[in-house]
Amino acid sequence: MKLQKKLQLAGLILIIAILCSLLIFSSIQKTKLQEEKELLLINEAKAINGEINRIIQQPSQNVHILADNLKEVNSWNPAHIQEYLENVGLIYGIYEDISFIDTQGNVIASTSFSYVGDWKTKEWFIQGLERFTISNPHYLLNPKRIVIEFVAPVHDQQNNLKGVVSIRLPFSHIEEIVQEISTGVLQEDVYLINDYNQFLMHTQEDKVLSAPNTEIPISDITTTQGTIYYEKNKTQFISGFYVNENFSAKIIVVEEQKREIFKIIRETNVLIAIISLVIFTGLFMSYIFVGKKFQRIKYLDTQAKKIGEGNYPKTINTKGDDELSTLAKSLFLMNKKIQKREKELIAQKEKVNKLLALKNKLIVQIGHDIKTPLTPMKAQAQLIQAQTKNSKIKKEANIIEKNTNHLLSILEETNVFTQLQENTFSKKKQDINPLITKLVQRKKTSFGKRKVDLKISKKPLLLNLNEEKITQALDQLITNAIEFTSPTTGKISITTTQTTTHNTIIIKDNGRGFGDTVKRKLFEYFFKEDDNRNNLGGFGLGLPIAKKIIQEIHKGKLLIQSKGPKQGTTVTIRFRR
Amino acid sequence: MKTILIADDEEDIRITIKTILESEGYKVIEAKNGTACLKTIKEKKPDLVLLDIMMPGTPSEEIIQKAKSAKIVYFSAKTVTDEDIKELTKPTNVKGFIKKPFDVKSLVKEIKKHAK
What we know:
The structure holds two protein chains of two kinds. By secondary structure, chain A is α+β, with helices and mostly antiparallel strands.
């Protein structure tokens, strides 16, 4: 991946990471705020409960005093009790319904006419009696009449329970409580709900007495305090509640959750937006900055490539003072130095080439100049041998001829070798088989008594050949086979074969072979296996010449193998088809 | 009797070849440089010219061009490839190429072939 792409990807990952962090942060913040809100709602409910307790405390005490005073009554005559109740009420400033009910539930006396009757049949009263022991004051909420009933037991002087004294406070008292709450500490929605899950009072509305509420899941409340969630008109709500056991009511503080959450989210979103904007601006600036630097890197890359291709730039812009500028300066210097070195190398190469050409020319010239005097020498030696009948002279002339030939063969090898160094050779596609046959025919006299086995493949071995050079190489290899086999028992086999992948020529003899020491030096220049050969021929360039012709000019493979001294030699020439 | 012109700047070579060819029954005349060679060809009209490629005086290429009617066999100690020989013997008046040094037998054979 390119560096620019990598940086872009890193930037993208950075943005995603930052956004994720912000989301996680906002979610944590949200949860924290929600928990705080829940706690606040419970505390509010608790506070309201405290207020209620405080307000209802006073009438409760009044009921106690009334009950205690009734113990002083000597006559349990209803008329007396009635009178007594009225007087005590007046004394203590209790103006509401005051009644005395016996242990059977019969109303003995009451300051209110409406209150006289049979309480035994009233369900709410029975439930109240069952729920609260009659020995303590109670607050009973009458579902039908919206009153608060304060009840306290009355005992005679012998401490026998005679009945209960009851003060009924109308709902206005609850209103007073609610009024106290709503004008006091708390301004929120507060509901007061009775045991029958009826709404008794609401701080925002007039007094209420509704059917069991279905919107607020009051029945789900199983603990004495906590929060509940619910939905009303597609708006989510959260409410805190507290159960006042003495007052037998639930206080519910309603808080619209969504509004609050929206507020939080809005605030968080603004924060995220600001942070994102800052990050994006930063990244954008970095992108532009990095982009400019990348242009610079691309420029330097182009210049470096030009240098690499030898298309040297005239100058390299090194503006700036950062690391890239340092690199540009180094590149600039490198450019100069390489150019200088290249010039030096070219000059040196020309010098070497001139020297090589001179060397080759010298060799050719020496060859020519030595051949010129050798020409009459050789011819004269041959003439003497032809003309004389004196066998001694004949023999001596033969020595001259032989040595002349030796000198000539050295010159020939050297010349051929020199020629191979500087010439290119034209090639054409042709069958090598006829060339081999012709060569073997030509060398017939050289084979002497050696047994020669020529096996030519039926299929033509078509190769891209320089006829003269390949013949020269083969001649050299066959000459070697002749030279290193016995003139009488020598066997030479020449085989050409074709496979799907290769054309192969194998020259095999049963001659001297060679060991590992010789094997390593076979293709070395001027290597001769034994110095005695000096008088016989070669200059030690024969195999290097053959190798050069086969491997370099014809792209073939030349392999010379022997199992060891006196084990014969196998020469393999292989060309890829 | 056929006349053979030997054009070579080396006297020893000229003497040797003269000896060989005279013993084969040819009349041998000599030229020791290019200029003399061209002159002799014009004057004596030999049946065959044995021409050394590198000689002082008139260059061999010029002799070939100017002596169109003469039969010429090149004669050289230069190291040449088969292709070089093909190139050198292209002109119709150049009949062959003898490499120096030569075998007496092969020289005689070559001369006999062209000096009919």
